[in-house]
Amino acid sequence: MEGNILRHTVATVAYRGGKALRGAPAEFADYHATPGGRAPVQILAHIGDLFDWALLLADGKHDWHNATPLPWDQEVARFFAALTAFDRRLASGEPLECPAEKLFQGPIADALTHVGQLAMLRRMAGCGTRGENYFRATITAGRVGTDQAAPAFEFD
User: Fold this and answer.
1) What is the number of other CB atoms lying within 10 angstroms of the CB of residue 99?
2) How far apart are CA 67 and CA 75, in angstroms?
3) Helix, strand, or coil (residue 155)
4) 147, 50 Cβ separation under 8 angstroms
5) Looking at the domain covering 2-155, what would its CATH class be?
6) pTM of the model as a whole
7) What residue ranges of the chain have pLDDT lower than 70?
8) In this predicted structure, what is the pLDDT of residue 20?
C-alpha cells in the first residue's frame, strides 16, 4: 500500500510540475521575483536533486548532492528522468530502506512545495497557466513523464 500512495504522489508531482513547465518562455528560466531569490531553473534543479536524494534514501543511502543547474530544457528533462527513476524504484517491489513516511515528508513534500513556487513564479513573470481543479485530473501511478493527461477542468 505504501508504494502505491507514494507512486500516485510522484505521478501528482509529474502532472502538476508538467503543467508548470509546459510552454514556459525561455526567459522564464532566469526570472527573479526578488533580488537574491532563486530563479526557476535553480528551483527545478533543486527538485531534481530532491528526487535523486529520494532514490538514494530508498536504497538506504543518506547522500545529498547539489547539482549545478543545467540549461532549462535539460533541467526539464532531468526533472522527468528523476521522477521516472524514483517511480521505477518504488514499482520494483524491493523493500524501502527508509520509512515511506520519511520519503513523503522530506523530498516528495518539498518537491510539491517547489512545483507550487514555479506555478506562482510563472504568474508573477506574466506567463501563468490556467487554474485547475486537480481533484478531477487524470493522474495515474506510473505516469511520470511528459505524456500527461489533458486537464479535465481548467478555469481562469
Assistant:
1) 11
2) 10
3) strand
4) no
5) mainly alpha
6) 0.96
7) 1-3
8) 98
